[in-house]
Amino acid sequence: MDSSFGQIVQEVSNWAIPVIFVLILGYGAIRKVKVYEVFVEGAKEGFNVAIRIIPYLVAILVAIGIFRGSGAMDWIIAGLTPILKPLGVPPEVLPMAIIKPLSGSGALGVMSEGLKTYGPDSLIGNTLSTMMGSTETTFYVLAVYFGSVAVRRTRHAVLACLLGDLAGLTMAIFVCNLMFG
Amino acid sequence: MMNWIFLGLVILGVLAAAVNGKMDTLTKSTFDAAKSAVELAIGLIGIMALWLGMMRVAEEAGLVKALARLVKPIMTRLFPDVPADHPAMGSMLSNIAANLLGLGNSATALGLKAMQDLQSLNEAKETATNAMIIFMAINATAITVIPATVIGLRSSAGSANPTSIIGTTLISCITASIVAVTSAKILEKLKPYRREKSRG
Lengths: 181, 200
Known about the structure:
The complex is a heterodimer.
Chain A: H1 3-30, H2 35-43, H3 46-70, H4 72-84, H5 94-99, H6 104-118, H7 123-134, H8 138-148, H9 157-180
Chain B: H1 2-20, H2 23-60, H3 63-70, H4 72-78, H5 87-100, H6 104-119, H7 130-140, H8 148-156, H9 166-187
């Protein structure tokens, strides 16, 4: 890696959180907030929020676990390849497109494997890397966020987020073809 | 939709495992997944408490409101149902900022704080509000300026140019966010997804 750039990035993320803490507490003290008492009062809710997520997370992670462990993904890839290949989508990146919204650790595995097999600087390697960073693990985010406030009826949230994922992943394949192809 | 996805993943998974002869490992991976869900949630308690404490101090000091005022024109357009000076605006903004900086778990904690604030405006507590869904659309497609994990992995895989994907990642992220937010804005008006007027 370009080491000076890498170091700057590393330094910024090392400093960000401690500096934010000092800013918040310092400014609070100036504004005569009883920082310790108020902090503890706010922190009290942390436990409940985290515990409230559990049932939502169990449901979605178990479903995803069954799906991943079953080999069903190979079926979907086999079904999609003949449709997508003529459109310029390399079949090697399909596992990433399917796993990315479902599982962060799964996507990480697909990416490391792909970088090893095809090389990080190949078209496939660059495309996998871009796809990896282009969206979040949608189902995890949805389960955690809605779970934390016990919202069960999510309306169009899943659809809107998946459309976003689809657009982001498609764009990743497209720009990588342009830039690295 | 969550019902269909939950059902679909389980049924398709069990069918595929039966055909592929993977039944032996399926039960174990199911229980492992349930266990790791609890571990993930428990692991959030500390960082959640930390940020909720910090945010309470920031709120009492007036910092959250000041932050929200900075980008009021954008926020009120994205979240028309949320009053411009509501704490939710400040906490959503801190979450978005933390995501841009790539602060992973802290971003999640701040995002959950924002969900609590949005829930205080919700009259039908079990149903998502429009503002929540827009906020989810932003989070599920979070824009990352520096994809640090990916760069690290590329570096250790021996890449000659690990940062080459910053530009392509940014373009893809922005596309995803724009499409997700726009879809949410359009879908919220369609009949199957609309909320009854009286419930906001």
